[in-house]
Amino acid sequence: MLTTRRTWLARSAGLMLSLTLACGTQPAAAQGTDLVIFAAASLKNALDAVNAQWQKETGKTAKISYAASSALAKQIEQGAPAQVFISADLDWMDYVAQKNLIRPDTRSNLLGNRIVLIAPKDKAQPVDIKPGFDLAKVIGDGRLSMANVDSVPAGKYGKAALEKLGAWTGVATRIAQAENVRAALLLVSRGEAPAGIVYQTDAAADPNVTIIGKFPEDTHPPIIYPIALTANASHPDAAGFLAYVKSAKARPIFEAQGFTVLNPGQS
């Protein structure tokens, strides 16, 4: 276990730096006394607010590390001391489940979301997203900002939608791929990309971008955020934090950020 933990610490340096740059937060330190939560980057605003409310009500604290679900799943595989994992898609939760790295009886589908097309606020022009729409015209001489289309959930959803709509071929060589969805959002927010594909909740969290089109939900797999305790979860507050995130108390916070709460708690 010690060797595995050292391996994780050695490999996490780059991930931790990217989390700080893309999400504007210091990631959790790998200390045995911390309640460490691994969560998809798109959850930052909402989950930070839930965590703050949980801390206010209970006096307990959780340290949350945000990154692409793919990166977090790989870190868990390498022995990261995460107690709770919240993925932005089913595939990466399935990945850790198949390796017996989560507790199956604690797994559930927490939230839903949508993907949208965004542009810098001062250059926003509405786009009718439908089969055959000219996305290449939208990005002009620039590039389309997306999370990595091969591994990051937001990127995978976006590519699937563009393929279904017949728009992928026209922009496939003009993608600015980011390591997570918040990094993709940042490229558009800074004006470094004329358009991007992010979650609806990401767009709502950044005043410098505007949604110029919404992708029909039948153009990509359902966007579902599953949650579970990791197999090695031993922190006494891990189960309580998971329960709170799923509870009725957290629901209005998630909904205020634009998420759809799945199977909302009653307590």
Q: Your description of this structure?
A:
The structure is a single chain. This protein has helices at 2-11, 13-23, 44-58, 69-77, 90-98, 135-139, 153-165, 168-171, 181-189, 200-205, 238-245, 251-256, and strands at 36-40, 63-67, 84-86, 108-112, 115-120, 144-147, 175-178, 195-199, 209-214, 224-229, 260-261. By secondary structure, the chain is α/β, with parallel strands linked by helices. The protein folds into two domains: 2-111 and 224-261, D-Maltodextrin-Binding Protein, domain 2, CATH 3.40.190.10; 115-219, 3-Layer(aba) Sandwich (D-Maltodextrin-Binding Protein, domain 2), CATH 3.40.190. Helix 3 links the parallel strand 1 (36-40) and strand 2. Helix 4 packs parallel to helix 5. The protein is globular.
> How many helices?
12
Q: What is the third-level CATH name, the topology of the largest domain? A: D-Maltodextrin-Binding Protein, domain 2
Quote the distance from N terminus to C terminus: 37 Å
Q: Number of DSSP strands? A: 11
Low-pLDDT stretches are 1-31
CATH class of the largest domain: Alpha Beta
- Main sheet characteristics: 6 strands, mixed
Coarse morphology? globular
Indicate how many domains the architecture comprises.
2
CATH architecture identity of the largest domain:
3-Layer(aba) Sandwich
- Considering DSSP H and I runs of 4 or more, what fraction of the residues is helical? 25-40%
Give the helices and strands as they follow along the chain.
HHEHEHEHEEHEHHEHEHEEHHE
